[in-house]
Structure prediction request, 364 residues.
Amino acid sequence: MKIRCERDTLVEAVATVQRAVASRAGASPVLSDIRVTATSDGVIELVGTDLEITNRVTVKADVEQSGIAVVPKMLGEIVRSLKGAITIEVKDDEATVTSGDFSTTLRLKHAEEYPRIDLSDGAGVRIDAGVFASALKQVVRAASRDDLRPILTGVLITTTEGGVRLVATDSYRLAVRDLPGVNVLGERQKVLVSAKGLAEVQRLGATGELEVILGERDVVFKTDTKEVSARLIDGDFPNYEQLIPSGYPNRLTVDRAAFREAVERVMVVGQGRDNASVKLTMKADGLTLTMAAQDIGTSQGSIDAKYEGTELVVAFNPQFLLDGIDAIEGDEVSLETVDNLKPATLRPAQGGDFLYLLMPVRTA
Prediction:
């Protein structure tokens, strides 16, 4: 195999597939590498996978000799360090990467060791890439990263009347986003998709259309040149609807940017303390935020806010609260509460199709 490709094109392609290669201990060594396939029609395909997600990118290149090779992921560092067009030539069990007067030779694994990655086929459903990427940005952050609870590492995609709903939770917070008019599933159908894979779908871009192909074991998301395959997770997602209170007696409305800035300021004293929480004191005359860390100190600040309800002090994990604020689209945030022990809900103050449920932290 011998190919020649522009440096910037190759850097972006390798970086995309590199994010999917296996990093966990115990994985097959070949999964830490990148498969490169060159075809006679002037196209090279790069694939990275950990068998949970698969990233595939196709780019144009000058193909002098077609072929296939499994190249160490170090290829990414090498191409980033070079300038100008890059040539990759494979002979026997070595690949030589050359640009100008610089070259690097890498030892290769046998291509036969790389797992078979079936190409997606069949017609998919096309949806607006920007709308879907925006929804994923709001929801994926709430999924668990604990592999001991695999059900919670996924995002539930389920049909609703006139659209679909995305749901994720790690048992401490819950994110729900409705997409009216978006139809990617059959009637009353639902699937649980790896959140890690959907995080990669976010990176596909927010312009144009995204093709979604649902298979028996995975779901594939495609643009013209990139493709992400995310595995489906077996199991029953928690009954999240019962967690959402039917009504709230207290409602705080606050400027989103000011709220975020205030949380960031007071949480400085609790950095590195997993058990540090931010207390919100909500009164008719505004909002006061307080954080205290033993042996360090206390930080406090107040901002203007509109509050309707009974005076209340409630505490939250500061990072989870920030994640919720960041997920809100719009200038103002609405924080609705029942008391200092029941779940609170963050929403856009002007309404919309998103809510973020957050469990309070018990404090002395």
Q: What stands out?
A: The first helix runs from residue 7 to 18. The first strand starts at residue 2 and ends at 5. Residues 125-241 form a domain with the DNA Polymerase III; Chain A, domain 2 fold (CATH 3.10.150.10).
